[in-house]
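Supplementary notes for students who missed Thursday's class. We covered one full example, reproduced here. Read the sequence, then the structure, then the short commentary at the end.
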Amino acid sequence: MELTLTAKLQLYPSPEQVALLQQTVEAYCQGCHAISEVVDTTHGLQQAVLQREIYRLLRTQFGLRSQMAQSVIKTVIARYKSVLANGQPWTRVQLTKSALDLVWNRDYSVKARGFSVTTLEGRVQVPFAMQGTARFFDGTGRFGTVHLVHRHGHWFLHEPMTKDVSGLDLAEIRQVVGLDFGINFLVTTYDSRGRRPFSRATPSNEGGIGKNLLPTRSSKPHAFPYGLGGLGGT
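Structure (token representation):
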């Protein structure tokens, strides 16, 4: 079966690269606003129709590359469909977040020195924090469309990676465990035997939070083989 994981990778662009990324993100956001205005007026969400009407404008007025222009259209359509799917009345979508979508092998790729990212002025190779990311770049998975985000002065890539994993044999499951992550407690679980342990984070010697986990209602060890959230079998 296929499993998709998303890594949040911090980029370390140079000052010159920061200027190029900011310029590109701003053009992407302006393109989204332009399309949102058209969609709000026409109530049309057909990608082919919007592409005929505004694709050339995205290329000439905002300087977007071909793939980015198409991504802008898809982004706006997805936002409107999300609003409607949630049962909200029709309203003009405002896109204010400093972010853009990059398509694998068209807008970005992975190189030895970092991510090769498309900007309005061409490609730049941006280094990133590689610690703990080996399983994402071991050649066994497929990359998808990444989300480039600028937040609090830092740059991040939300990188999805899909890989084939061995299927789960239901006959081998002896117990089902549900996990719920919260604020007051780092994690709580509930298993098919009715046990419900809590774990809270305590300050480490270095002053950080979360390096030591203390069970507060059960001292029995529990295994969580399927990672964050959801259900796991043991």
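Commentary. DSSP finds three helices and 13 strands in the chain. Confidence is low (pLDDT under 50) at residues 204-234. If anything here is unclear, bring it to office hours.
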